[in-house]
Amino acid sequence: MKKLTILVVLLFATSAFAQKTFDIKDASKYFDIKVKVETCDGTTCTGKGTYSFYKKGGTTPYQVINLAETSIHINDDVNVTDGVLPYAKQSAVAIEDYNFDGMEDVSLSTGDNGGYGSSSYNVYLSSRAAGKFVYNAAFTKALISLGNIEIDKNKKTFSTFNKSGCCWHITEGYDVVGGHPHKIFEKVEDATIKDETKIKVTTKTLVKGKWKTSVKYVKREV
Fold first, then answer.
1. H-assigned helices in the chain
2. Which residues have C-beta within 8 Å of that of residue 96, sequence separation ≥ 6?
3. 130: helix, coil or strand?
4. Rounded to an integer, what distance in angstroms lies between the CA atom of residue 8 and that of residue 15?
5. % helix / strand / coil in the chain, to the nearest 5?
6. What confidence category does residue 17 fall into, taking pLDDT thresholds of 50, 70 and 90?
7. What are φ and ψ of residue 36, in 5° steps?
8. Model confidence over 198-213: pLDDT tens digits?
9. Is 16 helix (H, G, I), strand (E, B) or coil?
């Protein structure tokens, strides 16, 4: 009986923490993605990750990106027994045209290394010359955000949000110049000032190459 108990425990451990492969087929009309993650436990998969990209309906990947760490947080209402992940129900990959060149770019999860244990990402831009996605350090740094990145396709700008604790928030806005992110806006809401009834709001806007700064104080909501 003791041997049987050990065997059952080992089988459960293998099932719970085995490598898992997921197909994401509804993220793009141009390509499919196969994500292989080192270990899975319930609705969380972490560890080494492999992202394979296929032309729509293809069977041979045209690019494979390996990451030392990745993470997938699957919604409880998703059935993953068939290995298919709906694009909107996971956190492994985001697809946007970050540099506004008309081509889809990708952000790939590098684990939960963002602020407050949030997801962190590497950004890879689509390159016509290389015929693949190419890692971009500048966009990876600029696109760090708590929560969603706000993208305005008409104005060709994007904005991010970050904070330090409950009482210091920053919103930053960017356009793209020469294929690179270019900061044009910053708003800091600071509730750490001595006057505990107010919040100091400092706004900086880039106008014709020069920063213009305004400061105001607003009543803190109780």
1. 2-17, 137-142
2. 104, 105, 107, 149, 151
3. coil
4. 11
5. 15, 50, 35
6. low
7. -115, 125
8. 999 999 999 999 999 9
9. helix
Among candidates 104, 93, 96, 94, which has minimal Cα distance to 71?
93
Tokens of 77: 């209402």
Could you count the other beta carbons within 10 Å of the beta carbon of residue 16? 11
Q: Collect all residues with Cβ–Cβ distance below 8 Å to 34 and sequence separation of at least 6.
A: 21, 22, 23, 24, 51, 52, 54, 61
Q: Tokens at residue 138, please?
A: 């500048």
Distance CA 146, CA 117 (A): 10
- For residues 180 and 174, what is the distance between their CA atoms, to the nearest angstrom? 10
Query: What 3-state DSSP class applies to 116?
Result: helix
How far apart, in whole angstroms, are the C-alpha atoms of residue 121 and residue 103?
Answer: 19
Q: H or E element: which one contains 206?
A: strand 198-207
Interacting residues of 175 by C-beta distance below 8 A, sequence separation 6+? 155, 156, 157, 181, 182, 184
pTM for the whole structure: 0.88
Distance CA 93, CA 89 (A): 10
d(CA 117, CA 125): 25
The angle formed by the CA atoms of residues 31, 36 and 41, to the nearest 5 degrees, is 130
Six-digit token pair at 68? 């030392």
Token pair of 72, please?
A: 């997938």
Q: Which residues make beta-bridge pairs with 21? A: 36
Q: 8 Cβ partners below 8 Å, 6+ apart?
A: none
